[in-house]
Design brief:
Layout lengths: L1 H22 L3 H6 L2 H12 L3 H60 L5
Helix pairs in contact: 1-4
Length: 114
């Protein structure tokens, strides 16, 4: 029975580490968190039911997935905007070149009208 309790504690510790890893996505975020507040967080999580802890992990992962999806949509929109503005710039340059050709043609045909 004691080994089974030890195994449950190992599972709890692993879940807590997973939750903290998801909650603090980057090492910089974890570094900003004080050691005391991190210990308080771990102590609270030690008293949390495993099912609730798993649900917290699930919710955090879903939130991260939504943020990633939103970031991907925003990035795709920016890329699309840049490509559209690049096309517009190309059209503007082409139009300016054509206007210059027309002006040159008018000067050749009607040299005295400048």
């Amino acid at each position: 029975m004691e080994s089974q309790t030890l195994d449950m504690q190992e599972v709890r510790d692993a879940l807590i580490n997973l939750y903290l890893g998801v909650k603090f996505r980057r090492a910089e975020e974890l570094a900003k968190c004080s050691e005391e507040s991190l210990k308080d967080e771990v102590a609270k999580l030690q008293d949390t039911d495993l099912v609730v802890l798993i649900d917290c992990i699930k919710n955090s992962v879903e939130a991260l997935a939504n943020v990633k999806e939103d970031d991907s949509k925003e990035e795709a929109s920016l890329i699309n905007d840049k490509s559209i503005s690049g096309v517009q710039k190309g059209y503007n340059e082409m139009l300016q070149n054509l206007e210059n050709e027309v002006r040159m043609h008018i000067r050749v045909i009607h040299p005295n009208q400048e």
